Amino acid sequence: MNEVTVGGMRFELDLSQPLYEQVLDQVRSSIAKGEIALGEKIPSVREMAQALKINPNTVMRAYQELERDQLTETRRGQGTFITADAEKVKHIRYKLAEEAVEEFLAKLGSLGFTASEIAAILRSKGGEGQ
Amino acid sequence: MTKAAIQGSGLVKRYGRRNALDGLDIEIPENSVTAVLGPNGAGKSTFMRMLTGLVTPDQGTLRVLGEAPSWKLNGRISYLPDRARWYEGHTVAEAIRWGSNLLPGFDAAQALQLVEQLGLKADMDVKGMSKGQEARLMLAMCLARDVPLLVLDEPFSGIDMISRERIVAALIDSFSDRRQTVLICTHEIPETESLFDHAVFLNDGTVALSGDVEELRATRGSVQDIYRQLYV
User: Fold this and answer.
1) Which of A37, B9, B41, B210 could form a disulfide with B200 if both were Cys (CB 3.0 to 4.6 A apart)?
2) CA of B47, closest CA in chain A: separation in Å?
3) Residue ranges of the ABC transporter domain (chain B) (predicted)?
4) What CATH number belongs to A4-82?
């Protein structure tokens, strides 16, 4: 599927993977990147389903998960909003960073690199720290 | 497992020497959007027609919304048959009036809104319509009914791209507004698979595979991929 922008958030869905997880991940990363600001309203389930051309149940499932993680809150009669709590967003940024690093380390580990070799590669690619 | 809106077991339908349905065991979850898929001759239309009693099984049992198919039950089913043409000689407005008088659960105001959303006008003559326009009218008539079961047999076949996109948008709105079990039989898999909760793949009158579409994606890939795995 082509890239679609909805309410400032960018989505690109792959029909060979569960759609609910992709919507969830992509909203999370939009929040982490600041594509959507703290306290901002997100599209309704119907608007999101129409824009992505997917079943509203799939959007609903992703939205419920966001709410459970307290990344969004629904105000009755007004819609669903991104949390205004900067700590929660910071938390999700670190969580996404950890996931990316774990994936990266697993990949290099499978290629047989040791921790010090990996650190050397990072430095050579412009990482400043030790 | 959620409750089943449709439950068939051991369904057999013979046409001459051929079994269109050959011991079909099938369950359609309540309030799901379920795709019934498979190549021509797999038994899709025979099964769909059975739901409204247009075809009776030679063997097996079928429960639809907890009952055996009957005229009375058909009042709770909104059915878009394959290759149907209902409104020749009508205008759009007359078709909607006809619906108000004859179709249980029909909401004329919603029908008018739907035909406009689908790019039609109340004063259009059905006779002069293109195939795509007529298909959009038929769909509007089906979606305007507040009934527990919606059955769409090939709503997209032979219809232009813009009409298809409008139909998909109308379906998404309908799914947002209403808790309803929806059954769609289609060959247009790439364009429609993102709409399905559940899929049933038929082959030679039996179920080759069925399941929750998101689970199938996680284990086997897209509906289109699975279709190729099963039928090529």
Assistant:
1) B210
2) 24
3) 6-229
4) 1.10.10.10
Question: What distance in Å separates the CA atoms of residue B214 and residue A105, rounded to the nearest whole number?
Answer: 29
CB-based contacts of B194, cutoff 8 Å, min separation 6:
A1, A13, A15, A19, A52, A53, A54, A55, A58
Tell if the CB–CB gap between B175 and A56 is shorter than 8 Å: yes
pTM of the predicted model as reported, rounded to 2 decimal places: 0.87
Specify the pLDDT at position B27.
Answer: 96
**In the numeric block, which tokens belong to residue B68?**
């055996």
Q: Could you tell me the pLDDT band of residue A44, with boundaries at 50, 70 and 90?
A: very high
B82–A contact, CB cutoff 8 A: no
- Residues in chain A within 8 Å Cβ distance of B195: 53-55
**Averaging pLDDT over each range in A18-22, A74-78, B155-159, which range is the top one?**
A18-22
In chain A, domain spans = 4-82, 86-124
Torsion sign across C-alpha atoms B28, A25, A7, A92: positive
B117 contact A CB<8A = no
Closest partner residue to B194 (CB to CB) among A19, A45, A46 is A19
Q: Please count the structural domains in chain B.
A: 1
A-B contacts (CB, under 8 Å): 57
Inform me whether the pLDDT recorded for A53 exceeds 90: yes
The enclosing domain of B222 has a CATH number of: 3.40.50.300
User: Which chain A positions have a beta carbon within 8 Å of B214's beta carbon?
Assistant: 18-20, 58
